[in-house]
Amino acid sequence: MTAIKMTDSKTILDSMFDAESFRTVGHELIDLLAEELQRSLSAQRPVLNWRQPSTEDKSWQAPLPQQATLDLKALLKKLEADILPGNLAIHHPQNLGHQVATPLPVAALCDLVASLTNQAMAVYETGPSATMLERQVIRWLSTLIGWQMQEVNGVLTSGGAQANLTALLAARQHATGSNIWKHGVAAQRPLRILASEHSHYSISRAAGIMGLGTDAVIRIHTDSQGRMLPAGIARAHQDCLSKQETVMAVVANAACTATGSVDPLQEIGEYCRAHKLWLHVDGAHGASALLSARHRDLLQGLEHADSVIWDGHKLLYMPATVSAVLFRSAQDSYLAFAQDASYLFQGKNHEVETYNVSYRTLECTKRMMALKLWTAFSLYGVEGMATLVDEAFAKAQMFAGMLQVHPDFELLMMPQTNIVCFRHLTKGVSGEESNRHQADLRKRIVESGQFHLTQVELHGKLWLRTTLMNPFTQKEHLQALMDCIVSA
Predict the structure, then answer these.
(1) How far is the C-alpha of 289 from the C-alpha of 97, rounded, in Å?
(2) In what order do the strands lie in the sheet with 217-220?
(3) Which residue(s) pair with 454 in the sheet?
């Protein structure tokens, strides 16, 4: 199509917002994505078409387009020829890498609705339906934890790192009692966070952002199953007291990123309640076990937490990103932030103020995140969503059993959730040489495009790591991975 002169502004504007063009291209786009979904699920394409990034980058250095072409068909062709094939195939049954959901297709359609309607949820009036959807989802998640809330006690936000930061900001305010937001931390006793040695890096990042310094995070040792030791919490707490330091929060995992291990939440919760310590549970990955009648006992004691985060884009099978940060007390959910923007907020006594989500979140403009979660629960219920969790956990147990009986592999531990860590064994190879062997195996396999898996270093040993997310991953795919590793 011939480029149109920029002076023809009416033609350009009409084309930009043309409903019929949107309808036509939208149908073609859905067809294209449906075909990609089918190719991935049926393993008709590689997991990854590996290209050296420095080489690939050279093909993405076209000059900035100056004139309108209005050629949507050309963009669809580019998507089909270059962009989709260059993606990691998330729905591929041999994609076993990160804790990234194989998103439910209906949830992706909900993101299309959210994008087009573009509800900027700073205050109620900029997203009325979006606000009500979010309040409903927050109530549902809180009920699953075991909190019977009369008030809405949390917010959805963009990712677990931001959710952890929000919870820890509230814990900081709670621990000090003064207006930290206004006056800062200079006049306070040193603030400390007690966290598992396997806590997510967003915990120490939050400490840095809050001006506490990453040294404020005191790492607590774990047992052989990757679970934080309650006795270690008690020792660290007493040590802080002896140094006139304030423990502003204890952070427990459910489950940790490295191994999927779940800390002993009941015991930790009882200690925190007895000593009036804020308990924050990073349940970004594992909180979804609450859906499952088989696995919810893993999280016994979660209801003792003062704050919990829960990622939808992990075991709730949502497109990234949507994370809930939830508080046992609705009042605590307001502690993290202080705002003063008269053009948005109309005074604490105004009847709609409690419906303005910006009091509880770092984000000012916030998209309609809740629609996809609301839709999934409305369509599939807790029972249907639980089948996804049960399937993932069962696949991890099956894979661990296969590794356990194979003489060429060492299993780190039986998985508690859906993460399996293991090593390939070779005679006469140990220490750093064995670590290099694991890293080299992973690199070759990933770059071959056959499988996607990750690696993790624990106490000086490098382990290959798989996250079983895809309900269509079968025993034959896992056997193929083992065969691929042995032959490599």
Answers:
(1) 20
(2) 154-157, 323-327, 307-311, 279-282, 246-253, 191-196, 217-220
(3) 465
**SS3 per residue for 323-392:** EEEEECCCHHHHCCCCCCCCCCCCCCCCCCHHHCHHHCCCCCCCCCCHHHHHHHHHHHHHHHHHHHHHHH
pLDDT digits (tens, 9 = 90+) for 304-324: 999 999 999 999 999 999 999
Q: How far is CA 410 from CA 152, 256, 352, 401, 428, in A?
A: 47, 21, 58, 11, 15
112-378 and 381-487 agree in CATH topology? no
Report the DSSP pairing between strands 246-253 and 191-196: parallel
pLDDT at 340 over 50: no
Average pLDDT, the chain: 93
CB 385 within 8 A of CB 315: no
Mean pLDDT of 55-80: 93
pLDDT tens-place string over residues 391-428: 999 999 999 999 999 999 999 999 999 999 999 999 88
Q: Where are the domains of the chain?
A: 9-87, 112-378, 381-487
- pLDDT tens digits, 425-464: 998 888 999 999 999 999 999 999 999 999 999 999 999 9
CATH number belonging to domain 112-378:
3.40.640.10
Q: Tell me the DSSP string of 209-263.
A: HTTS-GGGEEEEPB-TTSPBPHHHHHHHHHHHHHTT-EEEEEEEEBS-TTT--B-
Q: Tell me which amino acid residue 442 is.
A: R
Provide the total of helices (H) and of strands (E) in the chain, helices listed first.
15, 11
Q: Cβ-count burial of 456 within 10 angstroms (0-12 exposed, 13-18 middle, 19+ buried)?
A: middle
CATH topology of domain 381-487: Aspartate Aminotransferase, domain 1 (3.90.1150)
